[in-house]
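Q: Hi! First time asking for a complex rather than a single chain. Here are the components, and I think there are four in total. Is that enough to go on?
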Amino acid sequence: MGEPEPVPEKQASTTISQLADEFGITPRAIRYYEECGLLSPQRKTPSSQRLYDERDRARLKLILRGKRFGYSLTEIGDVIKLYDADPTQGKQIMRTLEYGLGHIQEIDERIEELEEIREEMLEFARSFLEILKNADGAETREMKEYISAATEIIGRMEGARR
Amino acid sequence: MGEPEPVPEKQASTTISQLADEFGITPRAIRYYEECGLLSPQRKTPSSQRLYDERDRARLKLILRGKRFGYSLTEIGDVIKLYDADPTQGKQIMRTLEYGLGHIQEIDERIEELEEIREEMLEFARSFLEILKNADGAETREMKEYISAATEIIGRMEGARR
DNA sequence: TATACAATTGACGTTAACGTTAACGTTATG
DNA sequence: CATAACGTTAACGTTAACGTCAATTGTATA
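A: Yes, that's all I need. Here is the structure of the assembled complex.
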């Protein structure tokens, strides 16, 4: 016989507080997500410990991602159910793909909005620099230092992305 | 005398429900934002009608934007106060610029995360297409139609952004 | 196998962000 | 100028997303 044990069945090894630590949240929150139908960890018997595998981990990642972008748990749940649909049915796949296209378009809109915000903030910062340059006493040593510091910050603002 | 009236003082003409309709929210929400210190419309006398000008409109836009991206009203308020700081004080300007740099970096992180999500969704969609292609009965007329439809959707997913 | 430690199930508490209603004042309009 | 339509304050209600116990029950370990 070759190797002793490759993998039991489907590795489900992480306990709830391990998972919680890993993601910087509380066990209570994880149980709540389950209560909302967003997670379904394995158990050996009902009422024994919950055991989380990679699939659950990926789900949780998705949940927290959704939350960071302001989606409610219900909305996140809809997405999860959608992408969980049976992939043996051609029609199901088509529905999922169509919704997926919608989601990608939404993401693109958000990216565009974020880029607009970025540009607005830059303009705002540049206008501040102008205020400094045109201020009374722009000749003083202190002001000159401010102006060069501000110029550098704005450079970093512009440079960061692309 | 030349013109009769150029602009009263600073145009503040919009009533609360006009503004609410304009942004698709309720008057109550607008009053609540004021209660939180995020808006401060003019009044002719205390306890007369609130009147909103362009500045308020811009604020409200910012508030709703923040909300769309999952920020709390308190966080939004902090940002507003920051960018409202007295621009005659050099030191104030510097603080604002530094915070602004932080915000831009945060925005960039978000954009990157959104682009990652986009890419993951695309991979997911492509894997679905593979499932279709390798499915039993990929030769049937129905399946062939699904495959071409799916291919087109994925093309639109890829093509949308850049 | 005792015992400490972690997990489980209620159940109630909390906070943000409004919704809703009531009682009353203000403004526009036929 | 009457009156409908809109606005104002005040106060209580609601919902989502957990936090915080407390009382048990599983689980790891000396």
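A: Residues 9-78 of chain A form a domain with the Multidrug-efflux Transporter Regulator; Chain: A; Domain 2 fold (CATH 1.10.1660.10). Let me know if you'd like any chain examined more closely.
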